[in-house]
Amino acid sequence: MKLSVIIVNYNVKYFLEQVLQSVRRAAARLEPEAVETWVVDNNSNDGSAAMVRAQFPEVQLIVNEQNTGFAKANNQAISASSGTYVLLLNPDTVVAEDTLAQCIAFMDAHPEAGGLGARMIDGSGRFLPESKRGFPSPWVAFCKTFGLAALFPQSRRFNHYHLGYLPEQETHEVEVLAGAFMLLRRSVLHEIGLLDEAFFMYGEDIDLSYRIMQAGYKNYYFPAATIIHYKGESTKKGSLNYVRVFYQAMIIFARKHFRGRQAGLFVLMLQFAIYFRAFITLISSILKTIRLPLWDAAVIYIGLGGLRIFWASYYYKDPGYFDTTILYFNFPLYTFIWVAAVYFSGGYDEQGRLRTLVRGLVIGTVLIAAVYGFLDMQYRSSRAIIALGAAAAIAGTVSLRILLHFIRFRNFNVGREEAKNLVIVGSNTESERAARLLQQAQKQKNLLGVIAPQADFDEALYIGYLGQLDALVRIYPVEEIIFCSKDVPYADTIHWMSRLGPVFDYKLLPENGSGIIGSASKNTAGELYTLDVHWRIATPQQQRNKRSFDLLCCLVFISTLPLQLLLIPHFTTFLRHLWQVLSGQKSWVGYAATDALPALPRLRPGVLSPLDGVPAIPLRSATVQHLNFLYARDYRTAKDIAIVWAGYRRLGKDGL
After folding, report:
1. How far is CA 619 from the centre of its chain?
2. In this structure, how many other beta carbons lie within 10 angstroms of the beta carbon of residue 598?
3. Which of 24, 47, 168, 313 has its CA 20 to 30 A from that of 142?
């Protein structure tokens, strides 16, 4: 066996399907039986393992019952495989048809090479600088952590981390290979050992690259092989968890390979970097989250302030009629309720939907009217101010949305998804399949035409052929390009993405695939057009509503504990459940236990389940699974209310 390709997967089924198809094509360029492919699934719940079994029977599949991490999962397959070379490959990648053959030929010709890395581009065609990297010495890590590498990307002194001074299109010896595509000589692995399982995710590629060089071998960057690495699917760089895991991996590396004072200084700097980057990430995340609510609050409060002067002058004929209490009590309270109502209505999940915004403000007005009746007389300003304030809040926040939309898109089509100008590259059959997928997935696109994969084409069906793509995108106002992989080689797709660059959005339709896949940036999750079930329970609004319901129930139960003692059997167990729900360990309602839980969105374990809302009769496993399916697909807070009401006396039973 010449090559063992190893892919570790976690909940990226459609990306895995695409990379396996590309590996299948690339393996066909080599001698028969020269390549074996291994997939290690780290307890995915999206049907990945079933897809591999059904569509790729030639693939060796290892299914773990828990997420064991990147290093351990790779080691499982390395130990079971037999290839002369081992390729560690991310699931969110695409290799060209000649990638494997070219890389093996290079390794055969360079016996001193212990490892080989490819040139990587992201889903928009941009070169990924982590394709070639240097070791994170204290100085290198300092420059990366504090932004000097980004300020001086081509500097040998400041950007040794990404080796920005080495030409992108030339083969070079490098220090660190990227774990997304890491071709290794098995004999070297036997000599230096496998991946260090102390690294759960991140850092294991740096550690392995370092040990390869310590053993006297070389690592090479090989740009003749270019692959797509969507990256956003496996890396969430905007999260605090990423900052913590990444820098903790660097600390493990430093403690393992550095000694004495250098190690101490390095670890100290990395520990500082964790808090520094975490602080920056946290502030950035908070500002991004609260920016629009703060603007809405400012608009609403300013509107209320203007109405105070107007109504006092117009109705009471006295500009100073209202006490200043209204400015620091009533108006902040009203503003908070309106903004909170918009938040819980989902008005900040989909910023373009004016209907959701207005609905939230109307609900907020009703809540304010209810609160008004409970206020002490000295704090009851004026019901007219509330009514006029509601109108002003709607007018002001809607105007703000229109202004922000115009600044960004230069049009006034707020709340309407702009139909991007699209061309499809592929045969008539595959282009029609792509168009049907888009239509059934309810994606609004303006199809400008179909581009033939070959120069011999019917002008009645196609607007041109693939070799004319750079001219066609200048002639037509193209914004998005879909490549049909059945007709267009992956090598051609990669070539055109690199050539045209990030001006366009690129998508790929895998052969026999049920999704259209792409990613506009290395820092964002991949975009996927599929016919999959829409899980209401997975939306941010419903997740927030479910958690709010849990907390509200906790407050009700806590305030009526003496009554619960009389009504709920097994009261001590109920108290334990109460604490678990309050602390976020459980939910009052979760999935029902079943022999084989299908691929559903993850939920906290539940005290009750959909079974508590149906008659107590024996049910087949398939029926229980279907009840869970319907609960996730059609979830509404009213469903939880009904289940808790029906199962109220069972709140003290053992949870799921």
Report:
1. 37
2. 14
3. 168
